[in-house]
Amino acid sequence: MERKALVAISVVLILAVAGIAAALFIGGGEKPITINQKGSDTMLELCQVWAEEFHGEYESISVIVSGGGSGTGITALISGTVDVAQASRQMKQSEIDQAIAAGITPVEFRVAIDGIAIIVHTSNPIEVLTLDQLRGIYNGTYVNWKDLGGLDMPIVAYGRQSTSGTYMYFQETVLKNENYTTNMQQMAGNSAIVQAIMNDEGGIGYVGIGYAAKASGIKILNLSKDMPSLSYSPLDKDAVIDGDYVLSRYLYLYTAGTPTGALREYLLWILTDGQPIAEEIGFYALPDQIIEEELEKLE
Hints:
With 299 residues, the protein is an alpha/beta fold. It has helices at 2-26, 44-57, 70-79, 93-101, 131-139, 165-173, 190-198, 209-212, 237-242, 261-270, 275-281, 288-296; strands at 33-39, 61-66, 84-87, 106-115, 117-121, 128-130, 156-160, 185-187, 203-207, 218-220, 222-224, 231-232, 248-256. Helix content is 40%, strand content 22%. Helix 6 links the parallel strand 7 and strand 8.
């Protein structure tokens, strides 16, 4: 009887192990993992496509991406409510200090390159602006296109909301930290600005190149540092990557500490397989040297 009992127990154990193995096989062999990510609206479409493609290759790992602006994503990372923040600007020192005080060491990854596009209505005859002229438009110095060699038509400036990384980058780079004109129309996202410019002959706005390149009904202006300097388009990939285009910038992902496990796989994938997708969405892939530097942060 004792031998029969032992045999019966052994059979039960074998069937149990087999059942567990079968369940693991059916489920992909790994426990489902969810990565939460939030931040830049400029990067929202890019990050959503990255998340979808990554999940296609790593079925057990899901990445939930939402927008709200770079500042919103960074705040969420500091509070520990997301695993990753996408940002179209670098973290400010005050934000880094807040993170460290909260016990979080933010790690920065450059993941793509953007050239902020200055867009106007297709009927606007202006083709080129200098950085000073652009600053004058957004600080309220210029209020009519005729002052810039254009038509006698009021200028309507469109920009982003204050939580946007692009809002802050533009204020630092173009306005030299001056205030925006109080007449600027603050819009919720890049698509809203594109739509506004399509319907406003006097309008001017700034959007990520990933949005401008795919839009119709708008014109993308060339920019120059000053009047004697050459002007460049954000559609000129070499000019953006080399920094000749004056509004070139990196796009970032931030993690709380050096990523491990599934999060490390996600960052590794973005810096390798994800780079061609950045080009497909309309942004620019990182140069090889920059990729090597970012990959070293995962070692």
